[in-house]
Amino acid sequence: MLLRYFVNFYDMEIIEEEAFLAWKEDITQEFPGKGKALFQVNQWLTWLETAEEEESDDEAD
């Protein structure tokens, strides 16, 4: 379910790629359920990271 929200927020350009990736990297114990959330969306976040890197490479060419 969380994955669906993330994808929709991304597709509708409500949340930018950088915000998703910053959230992923923010390791804190302040939010105990974050580990479960990351598990649900990790594959998508990895795809997002890879897509952003490929886009940067294309722009450099």
UniProtKB/TrEMBL annotation:
> Which ranges does the record mark as transmembrane?
none
Q: Which SMART domains match?
A: eIF5C (SM00515)
- Tell me the SUPFAM superfamilies matching this sequence: ARM repeat (SSF48371)
Coiled-coil intervals: none
The record's listing under InterPro entries reads:
ARM-type_fold, W2_domain
Cite the W2 domain residue spans from the record.
1-58
Name the source's superkingdom: Eukaryota
The protein's matches in PROSITE patterns, at most eight in alphabetical order, are given as: W2
Q: Which protein, by its recorded name, is this?
A: W2 domain-containing protein
Organism in which the protein naturally occurs: Albula glossodonta (roundjaw bonefish)
Q: What is the lineage of its organism?
A: Eukaryota, Metazoa, Chordata, Craniata, Vertebrata
